[in-house]
Amino acid sequence: MNPFWMFTIFFLVVLSLFGLMQYRLYRLYQSWAKKALEEDERGAWERRGRRVLVISNAVFLLQILFRWGSLYDLPPVQFLIVYPAGLFFAIVVFSFLIVFLSDVLRLLLRPLKLLGGKKAIQHSSGRRAFLRKSGLGLASVVGSVPVVASLATARDYQINRLTLTFPEFPPALSGLTIAHVSDIHSGLYMTEAHMKEIVDIVNGLQPDIMLITGDFVDSADSQIDPLVNALKTIRRGLPVYGCLGNHDHFATVEKVAAAIERTGVILLNNSSERLVIGHHDLMLVGIDDAGRGAANFARFDEALRHVEPDVFKIMLTHRPDVWDECRTKGIHLTLAGHTHGGQVGFKLGPLNLNPVYLVHKYAMGMYEEQGKKLYVNVGVGMVGVPIRMVKPEIAMLTLKAA
In which element (H, E) is residue 282 found? Predict the structure, then answer.
């Protein structure tokens, strides 16, 4: 499918769901106004609610126009349009999820309520005052969560250091270090300055190799130049390899690939590269985005055509779901991204409230089976909304012979 139509369909589906979420929340707002406010106050409050929705949606639609140009990088545009629009989206989605969970809980408890019989509720002035204060307080708490989470974690890059051992790894190369970065998403929430900060962190780590597993840009060709300017600041002499992700196909993928390679980054697009260090070598293999149906651009046979069976192999793939196939093809280490670690998932003590585990078999972190390993990087960028409850990461992997 043409990337333009693929992105258009995706966008329209998201926009339709977003509209339905707002409708459900506004109906709940009307119900609260009926119970918590005096009759002569309701009209004014409902008008305020509609006014907030109209203005917020206007800003949200306006940022879509900036998405296709380069002006989104300007600080006034970021602070007055881009971030408010993203936070509005985050607040609506987060609020809808809370309401949806509440609705499910009410349905589960409904049989108990029916057994207790119906009780008439008197809407006295005291009860109205209580509902008014509690409703406004709850709305303030729910609405502030995305804002606080964005400020607290969006740029709090974690350096995750892991040592991985393999019996097949060349002993002479033991201690080789790899900086693994994923899901940059140059665009609305990842400016040139942000990307240069990430590159500075990687340069400071002084790895032997840098590997980037897809989604260099978010959705448009206008996001290529800021990415290129940032990639050019990578330490001279550092070997850098990458593969493409699904968002790179939302833009003009040929332009994205050509621009990346002009910076010196070697794209493994259904191809392999022999990395010679001293008198020893490794094989780096990369596949294009492994989507579904017509959006599946991965070609394993093409990527592995020149790979010798007895050499140590590292696979770069954007989507971690292909790890099952990577193992059967003898790949020792697979590096992936794509999931963002759920981006808005979080833990409450022993309770893991991250929905990413319901969507992805391999969601984040390290997986191992039959001596083969997969590392799923939660990425550095954001998609959809400028909010991360799962902290962005740069993985620093040290490979050793077992």
Answer: strand 280-286
